[in-house]
């Protein structure tokens, strides 16, 4: 991950954790094709790097992301959204197999919310706002909100947000299950890193298998999802980490997981 980025910054705040900070402040972290490509590049590197167990995504104190880059879309029309390079980047981020946490403060609108929903856990600041305002400029969400938001918060609230374009508070987002925690502004990134550090102590293969099984609940029927879970736990029982974890429990010592 040692390279120069133009729209993001990447750090390693603790062992096993990579922190990606969206860094287009003048554009309120609008999701340009370049930004998405850089995030995707980091994700692909992190996926291949055994030293990275968890990725945390964050923005600025006043805005996580205001959404897609409207100037790009105004100039390029639908093809700006449907750009193969942009879609490849989006798919790479969505397909990241390790745990991903979004630390959201301030505005999280449009494509920014769709981007945040790619994370496995969203931690929100008290004054964060979540919205899908695309309807106010004559379009609709095009990066997954009609599907992901509905699956998370239910039809009624998703319809309200998408058809009105009006945002919801972090308190409403917490009640709806869109975020897992609402904490004071200024403590969000620290909390996300703390949670990521906990995740990073767990067995790496079990983390990936558990993530895959939970995500199957959004893609399949109950019976098919249970089959995914069964296959995952069957595989987990073949790993060295399973043997180490259970031995450590019996011997009353911390486990030493190796990802094997």
From TrEMBL:
Keywords from UniProt, A to Z, are: Lyase
| InterPro entries given in the database record | ClpP/crotonase-like_dom_sf, Enoyl-CoA_hyd/isom_CS, Enoyl-CoA_hydra/iso, Enoyl-CoA_hydra_C
Q: What is the superkingdom listed in this entry's lineage?
A: Bacteria
The UniProt entry, under Gene3D superfamilies, shows: 2-enoyl-CoA Hydratase, Chain A, domain 1, Lyase 2-enoyl-coa Hydratase, Chain A, domain 2
Q: Which GO terms describe its biological process?
A: fatty acid beta-oxidation
**GO MF annotations in UniProt:** hydro-lyase activity
Zinc-finger keyword on record: no
Q: Which family does it belong to?
A: Belongs to the enoyl-CoA hydratase/isomerase family.
Q: What is this protein called?
A: Enoyl-CoA hydratase
User: What species is given as this protein's source?
Assistant: Caballeronia catudaia
């Amino acid at each position: 991950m040692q390279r120069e980025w133009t729209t993001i910054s990447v750090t390693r705040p603790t062992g096993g954790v990579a922190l990606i900070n969206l860094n287009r402040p003048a554009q309120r972290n609008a999701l340009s094709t370049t930004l998405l490509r850089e995030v995707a590049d980091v994700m692909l590197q992190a996926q291949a790097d055994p030293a990275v167990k968890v990725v945390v995504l964050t923005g600025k104190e006043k805005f996580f992301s205001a959404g897609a880059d409207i100037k790009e879309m105004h100039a390029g029309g639908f093809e700006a959204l449907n750009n193969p390079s942009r879609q490849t980047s989006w798919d790479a981020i969505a397909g990241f197999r390790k745990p991903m946490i979004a630390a959201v403060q301030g505005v999280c609108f449009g494509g920014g919310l769709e981007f945040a929903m790619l994370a496995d856990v969203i931690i929100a600041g008290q004054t964060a706002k979540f919205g899908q305002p695309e309807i106010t400029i004559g379009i609709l969400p095009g990066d997954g909100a009609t599907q992901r938001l509905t699956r998370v918060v239910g039809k009624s609230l998703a319809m309200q947000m998408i058809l009105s374009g009006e945002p919801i508070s972090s308190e409403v987002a917490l009640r709806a299950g869109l975020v897992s925690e609402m904490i004071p502004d200024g403590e969000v990134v620290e909390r996300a890193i703390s949670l990521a550090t906990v995740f990073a102590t767990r067995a790496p293969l079990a983390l990936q298998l558990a993530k895959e099984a939970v995500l199957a609940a959004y893609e399949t029927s109950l019976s098919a999802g249970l089959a995914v879970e069964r296959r995952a736990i069957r595989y987990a029982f073949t790993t060295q980490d399973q043997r180490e974890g259970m031995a450590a429990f019996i011997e009353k010592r911390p486990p030493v997981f190796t990802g094997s």
